[in-house]
């Protein structure tokens, strides 16, 4: 397994969030537990827009930096520009913001519960694995970046 050139994440992040969204919608249908009774619709829309903008910016930056976006493929560079100046994981941050926005749009408290679970899976099964992989692959260059830029915000 040591010769595999990828992070070995346990799930592709978009798949995790789509599964959490589907579970939230199912739970909302079976046992609706509203957050604010519809008052959070527009703030939710704003979060979805913000999250999508972060996702687009982060993806474009990775592509421009010449590396793969998909964590199951090899990383070819440590990208430190664009949103990666502020967060080592802007794509994952964007996914979480979109998901939180959709939770507010659908007014489902279940979404908050499932977001907490998704964040744990992301941290342990994706982000920590990626960090170990990037440190093995890029050494001091990645360690310097990790020291200079926060993991999340």
Any chance you could write out the topology, listing elements then pairs?
Layout: H1 13-30, H2 41-64, H3 90-105, H4 109-138, H5 140-148
Quaternary state reads single chain
Give helix and strand order, one letter per element, not per position. HHHHH
Biggest sheet architecture: none
Structural class: mainly alpha
- Shape category: elongated
Care to describe what's here?
With 153 residues, the chain is mainly α. It has one domain (13-148). 63% of the residues lie in helices and 0% in strands. The chain has helices at residues 13-30, 41-64, 90-105, 109-138, 140-148. Helix 1 (13-30) packs antiparallel against helix 4 (109-138). The two termini are 32 Å apart. The model has no long low-confidence stretch (mean pLDDT 96).
Identify the notable features of this structure and list them briefly.
153 residues; 5 helices; elongated
Summarize the structure.
By secondary structure, the chain is mostly helical. It has helices at residues 13-30, 41-64, 90-105, 109-138, 140-148.
């Amino acid at each position: 397994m040591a010769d595999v050139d990828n992070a070995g994440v346990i799930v592709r992040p978009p798949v995790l969030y789509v599964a959490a969204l589907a579970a939230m919608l199912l739970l909302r249908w079976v046992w609706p537990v509203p957050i604010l009774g519809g008052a959070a619709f527009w703030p939710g829309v704003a979060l979805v827009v913000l999250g999508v903008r972060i996702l687009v910016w982060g993806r474009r930056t990775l592509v421009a930096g010449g590396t793969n976006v998909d964590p199951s493929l090899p990383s070819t560079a440590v990208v430190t520009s664009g949103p990666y100046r502020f967060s080592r994981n802007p794509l994952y941050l964007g996914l979480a913001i979109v998901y939180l926005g959709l939770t507010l749009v659908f007014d489902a408290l279940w979404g908050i519960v499932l977001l907490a679970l998704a964040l744990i899976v992301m941290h342990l099964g994706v982000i920590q694995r990626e960090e170990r992989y990037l440190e093995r692959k890029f050494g001091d260059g990645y360690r310097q970046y990790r020291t200079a830029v926060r993991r999340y915000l």
